[in-house]
Predict the 3D structure of the following.
Amino acid sequence: MKKFIVGVLLIIAVDQILGFTLGFLYQRTTTGEGGGVINFALTKAPNILILGSSRAKHHIDPAILSQYLSMSAFNAGIDGHDFLYAMMFFDLWQRLHPPPRVILLHVDVASFVKNEEELQKTSIFSYYIDQSDVVKRIIFARSRYEPLKLLSSSYRFNGKLLSILKNQFVVANEQDNGYLGLVGEIKWNGASSHEAERKDQVAPFWQEKLTLLKKLADYCAQNATRLVLVYSPRFRENSLEHTTWTTNLSRLLMAYPAVEWIDISEHTHPEVFARRADLYRDTSHLNRRGAELFSHLLAKSLEGKLGR
Amino acid sequence: MLFNSFDFLFFFIIVTSLYFALPHRFRWVLLLTASCLFYMSFIPVYILILLATIIIDYFAGKWIEDSSNPARKKISLIVSILSVCAILFVFKYVNFFNQNIAALAHALHWNYPLQALYLILPIGLSFHTFQSLSYVVEVYRGHQKAERHFGIYALYVMYFPQLVAGPIERPQNLLHQFYEPKKFDGTRLRDGLSLTLWGLFKKVVVADCLALYVDAIYNASTYHTGTSLLLATYFFAIQIYCDFSGYSDMARGLSRVYGIEIMRNFETPYFSTSISEFWSRWHISLSTWFRDYIYIPLGGNRVPLSRNFLNLFVVFLLSGFWHGANWTFVVWGGLHGTYLIAERGLRQLMPRRSTRPMGVFAHALKLVTTFHLVLIAWVFFRAEGIDKAFATLWKMAFDHGPLFWDTVIVQGVLVTGCLLILDIFNRRTDYWENLSHFPIGFRLSYVLFLLFSVVLLGTDLGTQFIYFQF
């Protein structure tokens, strides 16, 4: 029995030491998919904060927005994540900085839907679990055993060890505004006249995500921050799906009169984006040229909304 | 309920606590109930299939032993084998035959109206079918007394640590252990849990990590270069070894906690210097099953060489078919059969005269050659179809280009290196069987290393074991 207790205490001690050491090293990282990108973005305090998925990261150029609106902007969009990442990141960010003037939240058909893969990926925030209730609530929703697993200090760095070690030697460029234009064009011969079929048809919205949206909307209302939801083009988008989704979203936004909505897509701007394979990197992402066009249109639209 | 899940952890803690709290006479009830619950956690209704197999072979065993007439004994054996194989056939092979007959009929412009049966394959069906069959055959041969206690016999087939992916146990090894009273033993608990942790390390740190790259490449093999496919195939060789041997180690470790020893299923097979040696180290419980119940009854080595070659080929075709109802597995088995025939043929042509041990270079050459022959066969095992397997091999040989880069490659290489070092150490010292001979500091460091590797590097997705599908 004595040996058993000593063994358990030893495991706890090693866990704490590892957790502390990795936490120290993690805080120093400013790049990398293991979470360094979060550290870097948390240091930025722009007037316009851009949140969202890879479509936000590769479509919205903060430099163009700054040029039109004379306000600083930073793109905190990230590849492979979506709405939950945005909400978790923002909850951490707002504890460190004064409210921004504008929040641009890039949303998609699947952004308000329950997505298990998206939920699993939120483990990127495990390090911050004690710093935010939103982070804790979402991570605990991953599985019923998550609270138990996270009793371990070192488990918070599960899957991040090599990234943390590698990124000790990589420093982020301070001038980086978060935007990354994509290179390449989609290959399309223009023969098919049919719209793209997409499997993620308009599914019902997840209440947990709507609660988070409400929390963000309340924050913006209290702090005079303009919250603007943005939608960007997809190549040959299914018009029925788009119409159904925008109708659902408009219905939802009726409950939040202060939340604004900008839809710049093939359906709203066919003269710019429809059947223009040269503006797309793939069916979901614009290339650099497309992103510039999109950012200009977005900036003009915001200019009108913000009265500048 | 997978071994690499928290559900299983709690299940195991509860069952183990009750096991040692209960008097010996009730333990079989506990283990049987736990095994039923464990199996039903996958697809509950399929326990009925297992029950059917158990009932058939339980009564067949009794009839074989009770009958004094050899003809009746034989009839009981044949009826039992046919019935159990029929269940296996319906759930595993009927669609394969149906599709192939339909394809043939279509080619001959015949009308073939039979539709496919959309049945989900019960988890581990091939494993417990073979375990059950080995019991009946051993009773028929007189090597094992028929089990009169239905509950104990059911437990022999259903014992949860090895129910869904083996090792395929023999009645002589397992049945008597259920009757032996076991006292709680701290050393056994420590040894069992350490071995389980080693298996978990292989599964969640190595196999699941490599699977990320292998799946990304093989699931879109037409889009990838030969270089990426080659790396993915190397990774797959390690992945399948760690996935399956990891499960076997966990099964042995968990069972050891109860004081029930189950057979070793792997002995560092990639360090083999010949294909025959490989098969004496890879999935030992299956290869010995085929040896004892198919190969030897066909005549074994005591037949003319040509007949021996045919026997080998048949056995390996069956072994491939055992793995899955797909031509890829048949080719995989056939390829191994061909390797063995070639190896045996070469030995006949060039018998080794010298008794001196092999030199380091010769040893390394043989080891590398054997590994790569096995690697070629793995392409068929992993590919989605025969055409894709051949296309993959062609690309690997002639169509090299940029490597599909993923950060998981670095981790994959690191954990594979780590695994090989530990495997060499374990092999040289027979570590898991001789734990007590090592200083406590060393044992503790080893366990802490494995534990925190699982915590920090383990894939957190709770992925299934590859061999569950068989």
Chain B has 17 helices and no strands. The CA atoms of residues 302 and 308 of chain B lie 8 Å apart. The longest helix of chain B spans residues 70-107. The mean pLDDT of chain B is 91.
